[in-house]
Write a structure and sequence with these properties.
By secondary structure, this protein is mainly α. It contains twelve helices and no strands.
């Protein structure tokens, strides 16, 4: 249980650093950069898979559909929606909508305990406050809602795969499958201009996003998800804006306001309340593999 909590918290905190670090690659072709990010991550994960002696696992048709759905919605559609919502309305709107992930996962996990719902609600309030109560255009809102669907799919569609594949293979297979999908999006968006030689800062940014935000965070999340269940694990999604605030302060690109600090406090309080809820009976139904 403790390792699951630590893993989920670490994964969401690392994902929260994406916003600040993305500034390093802000001038790089955006979808081409995403394809490069997942290409590097998939190579790292496949090397780890081989080093651990994890052989390729034959999947059923249902499992293949879950993997394709996880990749399409949880990685590709999620990234497209976040990017397009930010273009339309700025980062606050999509950040606010994604702040409802804890509540969405708590409801999707079955019949959540009252304390879990209360905790998720407090986390949502804190995340919303920390992201600034975003506003924007109707199209920006639709893109943000698409990102919410993608974020929920990232967890829920992985649950049937984890007992058989384990965290490493789910991460490796999904990131590898995302590369051609994102490359196709990049070609449609920018043609052959989707790729160019990165500058030193861009190369460092892409390397960080691939190795830390993708490889490490994905593995920690997928290792923790079966131990906590989607409801409890989802509480830690509220750490994403908190991490973004902390990373911005450390890098000197933003100073947290009183509302940011209050929002961070609410997120932490909500997580603590949610974790005191009785574990759902379904939590034991998904057991992690040796990977």
């Amino acid at each position: 249980m403790k390792t699951g909590i630590a893993g989920a918290a670490s994964a969401m905190f690392l994902l929260g650093t994406l916003a600040a670090v993305s500034g390093l690659i802000g001038s790089y072709p955006i979808y081409g950069g995403q394809a490069v990010r997942y290409l590097i991550a998939s190579v790292i994960l496949l090397v780890i898979t081989r080093a651990l002696g994890l052989r390729f696992v034959r999947m059923t048709g249902r499992e293949i559909l879950c993997l394709v759905g996880l990749t399409l919605f949880g990685l590709v559609v999620f990234n497209i929606c976040v990017i397009e919502s930010t273009r339309e309305s700025g980062p606050a709107l999509v950040g606010t909508v994604l702040g409802t992930v804890p509540l969405a996962l708590a409801l999707a996990g079955g019949r959540p305990a009252r304390r879990l719902l209360i905790g998720a609600g407090v986390v949502v309030a804190g995340a919303t406050l920390a992201t600034g109560l975003g506003s924007g255009t109707p199209s920006g809102l639709l893109w943000a809602l698409g990102a919410l669907v993608g974020e929920v799919s990232f967890s829920l569609l992985a649950i049937p795969l984890l007992p058989k594949l384990g965290a490493v293979r789910v991460s490796a297979y999904s990131t590898a499958l995302a590369v051609p999908m994102l490359a196709a999006v990049g070609l449609a968006d920018a043609g052959t201009g989707m790729l160019r030689m990165p500058t030193v800062s861009e190369a460092l940014g892409l390397a960080y996003l691939a190795a830390v935000v993708t490889v490490v965070a994905f593995f920690l999340w997928y290792r923790s998800l079966p131990k906590l269940g989607p409801g409890r694990a989802g509480l830690f999604a509220g750490l994403i804006p908190v991490s973004a605030i902390a990373t911005g302060a450390v890098l000197g690109v933003a100073t947290p306001s009183a509302y940011d600090l209050l929002g961070a406090g609410l997120v932490i309080a909500g997580i603590l309340v949610g974790l005191t809820a009785e574990p759902p009976g379904a939590r034991a139904a998904v057991q992690p593999s040796k990977a």
